[in-house]
Structures are given as C-alpha cells and as structure tokens.
Amino acid sequence: MSASVQSLVSQPYKYGFTTDIEADVIPRGLSEDVVRLISAKKNEPEFMLEFRLKAYRKWLTMAEPVWPNVSYPPIDYQNIIYYSAPKVKEKKGSLDEVDPTLLETFEKLGIPLSEQKRLANVAVDAIFDSVSVATTFKEKLAEVGVIFCSISEAIHEHPDLVEKYLGSVVPIGDNYFAALNSAVFSDGSFVYIPKDTVCPMDLSTYFRINNGDSGQFERTLIVAESSSSVTYLEGCTAPMYDSNQLHAAIVELVALDDATINYSTVQNWYAGDENGKGGIYNFVTKRGLCAGKRSKISWTQVETGSAITWKYPSCVLVGEGSVGEFYSVALTNNLQQADTGTKMVHVGKNTKSTIVSKGISAAKSKNSYRGLVKIGPKADGARNYSQCDSMLIGDTSSANTFPYIQVQNSTAQVEHEASTSKIGEDQLFYFAQRGISPEDAVSMIISGFCRDVFNKLPMEFAAEADKLLALKLENSVG
Amino acid sequence: MINEHSEIILSVKNLHANVDGTEILKGLNLEVRAGEIHAIMGLNGSGKSTFSKVLAGHPDYEVTAGDVVFKSENILNLEPHERATAGVFLAFQYPLEIPGVSNRDFLRVAYNAHRKARGEEEIDVFDFDDLLDERLSVVKMDASFLDRSVNEGFSGGEKKRNEILQMALLEPALAILDETDSGLDIDALKIVANGVNQLITPDNAVVLITHYQRLLDYIVPDYVHVMAEGRIITTGGKELALELESRGYEWILAEHRAEAVA
C-alpha cells in the first residue's frame, strides 16, 4: 500500500488513558478455589456457586477453538487475574457516593453519570473492570416495572429470574470461552422488561477495562416478556497496554411472544499499536433466543477495536413467525484480526432472518465474515437473506467470507449475496481531481458502504459510529 | 478563439516525467491562453494521457524536470485536490465507479470543496439542487442519474456525459478532455461536444486529447499539436487534424526524424 493511503488509516486511540484507583484484586490464576472465592466475594447464593463450579469443571475438559481465521500466541490462563474491582469504602446508596475518580473517568469517555449531566434519554449501567459502578434512571424505570441493574445485584434481588434464564440461551458448556465466563464472570447488566411494556428509554451499558493484568468477563442478560420491547446499546473502551487483555463476555437475550429486542454495539476496545503490540482479545458469545411467537431480536454492531475479535451474535428462532436480524460493520486496521459474523438458527415455522455484513480492512489486517444459516426440519416457510460485502483499503489487507448454509426443509428460501471492492489510488485520485481531499474521499466511500447498517443504529449511536469510523480512518497528521 | 493578448492559462516548459522509472514525457512544451481550444493528437504510447495525468498530479507519475505554471502559479508542488480547486479539470478517459456514493452527494461535496478553496460558504442544499437542474441540461442528462451511485452501472456514453456535467458544475479555467470521444456513438458524441461548446468562454481554455479527427468536427480547435515520444513535435491549425486523418501519422513522424537528423 502506498504511503498516502496508509497514512489515511492511521489514527491515535484517544481512550487509551489509565485511571489510578485502588482495587480489590485477587492473585493470578484459576482454580476451583478461585471460583469459590469470586462467588464468596460477591456473597452469592448457593445456586450461583453451583453454576460456576459446573462451568469450571466443564471448562477443564474443553480446548480453545482453533478454527477461527486468526492467530495469536497461546494464552496463559494461570497468568490472568480473574477478579479486580475498584475498592468501595461503603455500600453506595446513590450516585453521589460513587468514587469521584470513577465518575471523572466516565465523563472523560463521554458518559456523564451525575444527575445534572447525564444523557437525557438513555439509562446507563457503567461497568469498570467488570464491576458495575453506577446505573442511572433506575428508579424511573422501576415505576413501569423495568428492572435495569448490575447482574450481581440481580442475583441478590431477583434470584428467581436469574436462575430461570441465566445459561438458558448460552449453556455453560457452549464453547470454551463461554464456559470460562460462566465460571468466573464478575459483573454485567441485567434487564427485565415486563409484559406489555415498551421500555420508556434506551438502555445502555458502557464497558471500561482499566486493569492491565485482569481478564474481563462480563455477563449480560436481557429478558423481554410478552409484547414488550427494548433498545439496548453497548459501548466499550480500554487503556493502551503493551500486553494483551482477554475479554470473554456473554450476552444472552430472551424474547417471548411478540417481544422485540434491539441490541446495538459500538466496540472500540484498544486495538494494539501499528506493530500489533497490545490490544484486547475480544472473544465474546452473544446469542438471542426468540422463544415466543412473532418475537424479534435484532443485533447491530460496529466493530472497530480489539486486536482480535471473535464473535458471532446469533439468533435462535424457535417461536413461530419470529425474526432475527444481524447488521454489522467490522473495520480492521494495522495488524488487527477479526473473525466475526452470525448464526441464524431457524427452528420454528415461518421464521425470517436477515444478515447484512460490511467488512472493511486496511493496512495488514485480516477481516473474515463467518456466518451460519441453519434451517431445521420443522421450519416450514423459513426465509433468510444474507448480504456480505467486503472493502479493502490498499493492497496488503485481506478479507474472507465463510458462509455456512444448512437447509433441512424443502420449503425454505435462502439467499446469499457477496461482493468485494477496493479503495485504490485511482478512486482517490478521481475524488481529488474533483477537489475532494483524500480524507473526505475515504470517509464518503466508507459511509456509503456502511449506510445499510448505520441506518439500523439508534440515533445516538449512528452519529457516534460515523464519527468513530471517520476518526479511525482519518489522517490526523495531514 | 485566438487572442494574442489574453491571459496565459497554462505554460508547460521542458516537462519530463517518469512512471515506474521509465521516462514517458521527454521535454514537453505547451502554452495555452484563455479562450483557446487546443487538440493534442498522436499515436498510442506517445504520452498524451500521461501528460494529462501529470498535469492533474496523479501520484504514479514523477516529474523529473521542467515547470508547469497554471495562471501564474507553479502547480507541481500542489496536491491533486488543490490543483483541482485551483481550476484544473481532467475529464477521465475511464471515469471511475464509486459504489455507495450518490452522484448528487459527490457533486455537492466537490462543488463545496471548490467554494471552500475560494473562501466561500457551503452552498444551501436547495440552491444546489436548482443549480444542478440547470447544469443537467448542458449534457441532456436525466435527474434520475443524480440518485445513482457515481458512474456505477452507467453506459460508456453516460459516464462521459457525467464527466461533462462535472465540468459544467465546477467551471474550471482549464479543462483537459482525455479521449472523451472514445467509445461514444455519434449521438452521444454530439451531445458531449455540444455540452463542451456551451461551456467555452473567453476566460477559460480547453485541451482535447484525441486519436481522431471526428471529435474536432464538433469542437473546432484553434491549435492542433502532434505528440510523439513524449514531446510535441508539430503544431498547426485545424487543417492539420484533417491531414492526419487522411494521411496517417507516418509522414509527419518521418519528417520529424529527418529534421532531427539534419
């Protein structure tokens, strides 16, 4: 790739600062004792300890997956800290009692939590090193029966719901990283939308990794009862470290009859430097269960960060007439590697799914779409439409598409379209010859390329996503 | 129209340029004044297209010697987009397709880039649409082209008309048309030529790069230059093109070789 295109896609990471805060940290390494210790620290009921131990024992029998199109040195699981929480002197009753250092950190990230400044129409659960530090608008949401709190709190306050749904979509032994998460997860968000309720505001979790040696294992569970709906947004950033941090999260969604869940992610974990040093290993399992009739789960993701991304937000379409959607933009630069896509598993009759994936690869990065469309024997009239487009910037990056299609019902309709395009010198020269600078040209091409996905993002995120991609691709030096 | 006293728009002196280490332009000289139409003709490989790309600043070409002065400013150190906003326009032989970017957005951003370079505010979106409507008529283009991606799925003729539409909108002081006639049927050729003729004023200039006399029936040049081996070897009036059409290039190249020996 020529120097001019190369310089366009280099942009410093602006969330790379570290917060100096005293933390409650346990020693490195993983054992049954560590699992018990985490559970004890969180003062969990017996069923949670059992859940964790079962997962840990399962994990011991499993092996790390080798099929993704990514490569990295072996992870030493005994060299990771599995619990790190910012110290709190007393139990916090309100936001005013949250450590000001933490409030400041989130403010710096553009997520003000204090009463006066917080976002007007979005309730935020702020998670710092896998521990929820504050949840805004909790009381207001409770008025309509919506539960929005950290998963730790839910385990204590709503154990019946947690016990019923935790692990019901992603079983503890689902995959290697899911088993690990189930054993050691420290915190995350819990959402419960009662019957016939439209959640009055968007809900959002903001994940922040701070500690350089600790793994990050969040757990999110969202349950939407019959005829309810919710829009959920997720954002993530991390400091710049030379070492790699493991992030193995699980998100489980359950939608009952006529319920709708829209789940959007803007992922901007630290991606490592231009030589591939440092960055987050983002090995995440996200799955939604459309359990009820005519239920709908929609995943929208904008993936720009992480050294390695391994994630496939999926939908299991059980309820008759249920709908699954996946809209994704994945941008990789420098030596980033992404193996991402979705799984649409059609179980029930007349289920429908849509997949729109846009991969952008620059510099020496590797960007793969991997998707499974499976139509089960009972899924009469099931339909899927998939569209996978790749864009290469320069000529040293790579893009791959791995579609898997399994159809066991002759009445199903499955469509798959794929394209690859390239932003080359000649295209940029054409823009330049009309007076358009290379920075503006790249951002026009990219935003045109991503439009189908950005249109699906909630307003607050669409602007952020556009800005983020522009930032990632703009030349700051000129 | 020749006017000895009009402003010099372009002055090229002893221009040498390489691509991948091979010298393509070998001491090219050309002067273009406001109001003039110049045609550059020559065989394949004579350096005509290279010359147009070097003027526009294509990054694949390296200028090793000479000067290019555009309206009293040396433009060799300007970035391609700065040359464009200064008033150098190149109609591409093969216009590029830009999937996902609508023609309307592309034209608006380009137009605003030119305004910004002149220190003017961005144009109001509605005013721009009015302006665009008016300019569409220059090339008899349907407004439906505006909402399609730039050049994507356009026929050869539509792409060339789109180039002239851009020229009509950006109103460059110097327009270089690189084989705009290639691949056009006679109707499309007439529309394109008619569009260009409407855009010519006493204040701007046009350089036509072409293989064939055909285009020059419709856009009548003041000067015809013959290029060979990276230089302009002969300059004449419009009759020269007719002579080339009937006699071919060999005689003129032979004369040139003879002169070089003598």
Question: What does this entry look like structurally?
Answer:
The complex is a heterodimer of chains A (478) and B (262). Helices cover 23% and strands 35% of the residues of chain A. Chain A has helices spanning 3-8, 32-41, 46-60, 100-108, 138-143, 151-157, 159-165, 176-184, 425-433, 438-454, 459-473; strands spanning 23-25, 84-86, 122-128, 131-135, 147-150, 189-193, 202-208, 219-224, 229-237, 244-247, 250-255, 260-267, 279-290, 296-303, 308-311, 314-317, 323-332, 337-346, 352-361, 366-375, 383-393, 398-407, 413-423. Chain A is globular. In chain A, the strands form three sheets. In chain A, strands 5, 6, 8, 10, 11, 13, 15, 16, 18, 20 and 22 form an eleven-stranded mixed beta sheet that branches. Chain A has a ten-stranded mixed beta sheet with strand order 4-3-7-9-12-14-17-19-21-23. Chain A has one domain (3-473). In chain A, helix 6 (151-157) packs across helix 7. Chain A has eleven helices and 23 strands. Chain A is of the alpha/beta class and 478 residues long. By secondary structure, chain B is an alpha/beta fold. Chain B has a domain at 8-95 and 174-261: Rossmann fold (3-Layer(aba) Sandwich). Helices cover 36% and strands 29% of the residues of chain B. In chain B, the strands form three sheets. Chain B has a six-stranded mixed beta sheet with strand order 6-9-10-3-11-12, with helices on both faces. Chain B has a four-stranded antiparallel beta sheet with strand order 2-1-4-5. A two-stranded antiparallel sheet of chain B has the order 7-8. The radius of gyration of chain B is 18 Å and the shape is globular. The chains are: A alpha/beta (478), B alpha/beta (262). Chains A and B meet through helix 9 and helix 10 of A and helix 2, strand 7 and helix 3 of B.
